[in-house]
């Protein structure tokens, strides 16, 4: 009798799992609205939520600028440099009606927050990183108010910000499109989600780019011509002159830059933006997958009277699989190589690099290479982020173990062949001196 009851329970559990998996497949994302994620209901502690708490408590006031609204004050409070400004003229924002080639949308960012500003726009747009919940979206009305309020956005933003572009979780992404003369994307010509793995010839369609890049071509600074009976023939093949507008040092001949905080859209800032948007997504994915796996494990343990500490092989594999994706990305596996030096047009590279931290030899994971690859020491600086530190224990153990195996040279598989022995040793030494609470085995002398 007990045996039959046990199998009925198992059938019920498997049925529930099938329903869950079917729902996941139909929605093409994880079950984020229910336990244990509770994306819509759980409290958040991201930089914007913290700023709002300070405003509510009367600890600060945001000054209002007649040209930029709350933008300068917000950037100052969030410690986001003006040099991070990048400009996108494709109509790919909810304020698309006010965006054009001569009126691009400006983005500013640091390691944890992204801010969007449109000249004459109704609101500032925000995407902030909560250590547990990932990307959280907000709007701030651009009308002067004694008590400005950052309004959290959910379903409308999630229509675009939960998909394969964001690793199926609420996330961030940089998109490259083929824009027509109005800035509208020509979707039949293809679009690209870009990160450090993307070849340069697929990057920055619909974006302005300033700085030098040699003969390397990409999709920046230009719009497409359309072959067909008329420019409105959206089904005709689109042509993009990737050689036009190359190596621009400023945008003064493209638009009136006076309304913007700078006259630039720095190429190095764009590269950092592309890397970290997906890095944030991979960190959040590991967090979600681990919490979901442990939630399902707890249900199984309760159903079968197993000790609460029991962790199945399947649960471990699910966590390790997500951790492996994160490790591959943070160690720049499949990074697109550079064939010529990259140089920005602003102080962004200096502003970014000086944030450190640095080891006793002055080395930092924030040091740029920009000649053959993006960073001198290819391990993501977001290993220092709150989101990384907030990973569940089992997930962090899995990530650290794989990092150590690669950096100590125990994993010599071809996917990590881009890391020389000198690279591995340098990254390991930097982490040992600059990353708190590393596992003890990281303290072992690096392989020679």
| Mean pLDDT across all amino acids | 90
- Sheet bearing the most strands, described? 7 strands, antiparallel
Give the helices and strands as they follow along the chain. Answer: HHHEEEEEEHEEEEEHHHHHH
Count, helices: 10
Number of extended strands: 11
- Strand proportion: 5-15%
Note down, in words, how this protein is organized.
By secondary structure, the protein is α+β, with helices and mostly antiparallel strands. It is built from 10 helices and 11 strands. It has a domain of 164 residues. 32% of the residues lie in helices and 10% in strands. Strands 6-5-4-3-2-1-9 form a 7-stranded antiparallel beta sheet, sandwiched between helices. It is globular and about 65 Å long.
Supply database-style keywords.
448 residues, two-stranded antiparallel sheet, seven-stranded antiparallel sheet, single chain, alpha+beta, 11 strands, 10 helices, 32% helix
Quick structural gist:
By secondary structure, the chain is α+β, with helices and mostly antiparallel strands. The protein has ten helices and eleven strands.
Topology:
Elements: H1 2-27, H2 47-56, H3 71-78, E1 86-88, E2 105-109, E3 113-117, E4 123-130, E5 134-141, E6 150-153, H4 155-161, E7 174-177, E8 191-194, E9 207-208, E10 225-226, E11 238-239, H5 267-303, H6 313-330, H7 348-353, H8 386-389, H9 393-407, H10 421-434
Antiparallel strand pairs: 1-2, 1-9, 2-3, 3-4, 4-5, 5-6, 7-8, 10-11
Helix pairs in contact: 5-6, 6-9
């Amino acid at each position: 009798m007990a045996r039959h009851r046990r199998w009925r329970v198992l059938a019920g559990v498997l049925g529930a799992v099938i329903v869950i998996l079917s729902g996941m497949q139909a929605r093409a994302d994880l079950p984020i609205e229910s336990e244990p994620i509770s994306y819509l209901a759980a409290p958040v502690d991201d930089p914007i939520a913290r700023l709002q708490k300070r405003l509510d408590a009367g600890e600060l006031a945001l000054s209002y600028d007649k040209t930029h609204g709350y933008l300068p004050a917000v950037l100052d409070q969030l410690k986001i440099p003006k040099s991070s400004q990048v400009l996108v003229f494709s109509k790919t924002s909810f304020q698309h009606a006010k965006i054009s080639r001569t009126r691009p949308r400006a983005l500013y960012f640091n390691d944890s927050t992204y801010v969007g500003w449109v000249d004459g726009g109704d609101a500032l747009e925000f995407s902030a990183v909560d250590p547990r919940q990932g990307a959280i979206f907000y709007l701030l009305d651009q009308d002067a108010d004694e008590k400005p309020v950052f309004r959290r956005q959910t379903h409308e933003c999630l229509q675009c910000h939960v998909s394969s572009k964001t690793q199926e979780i609420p996330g961030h992404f940089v998109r490259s499109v083929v824009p027509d003369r109005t800035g509208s994307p020509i979707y039949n010509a293809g679009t690209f989600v870009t990160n450090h793995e993307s070849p340069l010839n697929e990057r920055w369609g619909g974006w302005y780019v300033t700085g030098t890049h040699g003969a390397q071509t990409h999709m920046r600074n230009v719009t497409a011509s359309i072959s067909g009976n008329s420019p409105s023939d959206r089904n005709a093949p689109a042509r993009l002159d990737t050689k036009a507008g190359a190596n621009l040092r400023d945008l003064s001949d493209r638009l009136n830059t006076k309304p913007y905080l700078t006259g630039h859209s720095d190429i190095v800032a764009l590269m950092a933006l592309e890397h970290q948007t997906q890095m944030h997504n991979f960190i959040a994915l590991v967090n979600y997958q681990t919490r979901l796996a442990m939630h399902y494990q707890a249900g199984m343990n309760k159903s079968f009277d197993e000790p609460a500490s029991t962790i199945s092989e399947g649960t471990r594999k699910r966590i390790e699989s997500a951790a492996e994706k994160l490790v591959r990305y943070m160690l720049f596996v499949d990074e697109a190589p550079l064939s010529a030096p990259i140089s920005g047009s602003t102080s962004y590279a200096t502003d970014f690099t000086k944030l450190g931290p640095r080891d006793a030899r002055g080395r930092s994971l924030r040091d740029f290479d920009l000649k053959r690859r993006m960073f001198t020491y290819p391990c993501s600086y977001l290993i220092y982020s709150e989101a990384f530190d907030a990973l569940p224990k089992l997930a962090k153990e899995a990530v650290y173990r794989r990092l150590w195996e690669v950096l100590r040279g125990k994993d010599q598989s071809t996917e990590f062949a881009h890391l020389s022995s000198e690279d591995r040793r340098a990254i390991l030494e930097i982490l040992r001196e600059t990353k708190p609470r590393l596992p003890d085995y990281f303290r072992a002398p690096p392989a020679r």
